[in-house]
Specification:
Structural class: mainly alpha
Number of helices: 5
Radius of gyration: 18 Å
Number of domains: 1
Strand content: under 5%
Number of strands: 0
Distance between the termini: 42 Å
Length: 173
């Protein structure tokens, strides 16, 4: 438990630093804020993802407690999972960027909002389907208890990323 707390604490500290840096960009006006959102959202999202993703595998390794035998079976499945999961993460980022563009130019219509909602739900459903598919594969590689722990670690890391992203994306207007 101490290991999980240490790894997750590191990620939370990184996210906190990003939040402080972003809060320094206090809006001078709505126009200036919109321009900042347009330029910064992509950069901030990319940077946040890079930092978390760079540390993700190390955090998983540190906190999962795999034996050598389990490691040999687990990591190829993990790499396959993230090969597919990255495509969904990229789609999620595209949706956020698309929303930010609509926000900046005040062009979010009800029809476009419907499309964004439909796309977002589609991505979420695909993520769940992928998790279900890979839970079976992970259970062939490691015990179910460690599969559960793995997805707990993933959920915590995703929560950190989502929290950071949501702090950068304004509410729809």
């Amino acid at each position: 438990m101490k290991r999980t707390t240490t790894g997750i604490s590191t990620v939370l500290a990184i996210a906190f630093v990003f939040s402080l840096l972003l809060s320094a960009l206090a809006p001078v006006s709505a126009q200036t804020y919109s321009e900042q959102v347009s330029r910064k959202v992509q950069e901030d999202i990319k940077l946040t993802r890079q930092v978390i993703q760079a540390k993700r595998k190390a955090i998983v390794a540190l906190n999962l407690g795999l034996t050598d035998y389990e490691s040999k079976a687990f990591w190829p499945v993990y790499d396959e999972y993230w090969s597919e999961r990255k495509k969904l993460a990229d789609r999620h980022i595209t949706l956020l960027s698309d929303f930010a563009k609509n926000y900046v130019y005040s062009s979010l219509t009800n029809d476009r909002a419907e499309e964004l909602l439909k796309d977002w739900l589609s991505v979420e459903q695909k993520k769940l389907k992928l998790q279900k598919k890979f839970i079976k594969k992970f259970k062939k590689a490691i015990p179910a208890k460690k599969v559960l722990r793995y997805f707990q670690i993933e959920n915590k890391l995703n929560l950190v990323i989502d929290t950071e992203l949501s702090s950068q994306i304004p509410l729809a207007r």
